[in-house]
Amino acid sequence: LLAPTEVSSPSLKTGTYILISVGALTMLMGFLGCLGTVNEIRCLLGLYFTCLMVILITQVAAGLVIYFQKETLKEELSRVVGSMIENYGTLDEDERNLEDAWDYVQSQIACCGWTGAKDWEKNKIIINESMTVYPCSCFNSSKGFQADSHFCNLDVPVNGTATDADWPIHKQGCMDGVEKWLKDNLGVILGVCTGVAVIELLGMILSISLCKNIHSEDYTKVPKS
User: Secretion signal: which residues (predicted)?
Assistant: First the structure.
């Protein structure tokens, strides 16, 4: 029996919980905003403003943490991905979605392994097969047809054994591929983040304006003595 595989980390789990919390808060915020606007309830509009402000501050804080802790995050990802690659193909059903996600990354970014294809030389199944199989998601489509499975067989094994140099795969590591993708799409990412921040600021301004209008209307309705 294989020992349980550690394919996660405290940092990644914390990030996941934060994203889930922000998503739930966003849904609640939208509901409160609509309810407060339709019924002209000042306290709900105030709560809507507060939620928007908390989300905006959280986003800015998360961006700063990622920027200043990027080396630590890179080390965490390297450890997690390395453990997943080593046990790829032997994980249970509950952890199979991690393999599918990694297959998607490798096929879409056209990369193999975290630092390179040599990372796969530590995989238990590949070692047992004397390196005559390789991950299909690493396959270089310019070299032929890719089978739809976890591992592909070499057409002509060299003396029954092989190395990663014999695999018809992409040579670029996914770490470099992801960094290149981020640099190429930096303008789009910054544009989207700026757009989201502007929309949130507009929502805050509109909620404050509605609160003031409701307060003014309530004041004018109060009978003068």
Answer: none
Closest to 168 in 3D by CA, of 150, 155, 149, 177: 155
Amino acid at 108: Q
Q: Would 136 be classed as within a structural domain? A: yes
Residue 169, domain member (yes or no) = yes
Q: In angstroms, how far apart are the furthest CA atoms of the chain?
A: 103
- For the chain, what is the total number of helices (H) and then of strands (E)? 7, 2
- Residues sharing a CB contact under 8 Å with residue 143, sequence separation 6 or more, in sequence order: 168
> 92 and 47, same structural domain?
no
Position 2 scores a pLDDT of 35
Token pair in block for residue 30: 């939208």
Domain annotation covers residue 197: no
Query: What range does the domain containing 155 cover?
Result: 88-187
Residue 204 lies in a domain: no
Q: CATH number of the domain at 114, please.
A: 1.10.1450
CB atoms < 10 A from the CB of 190, how many?
10
Residue ranges for the chain with pLDDT beneath 70:
1-16, 18-19, 22, 91, 93-94, 142-149, 156-161, 214-225
Where are the strands (E) in 78-167, listed by range? 133-135, 151-153
* Whole-angstrom distance, CA of residue 159 vs CA of residue 98: 34
Helix (H, G, I), strand (E, B) or coil at 28: helix
Residues 94 and 133 in one domain: yes
Q: Any idea which residue has 């989300």 for tokens?
A: 55
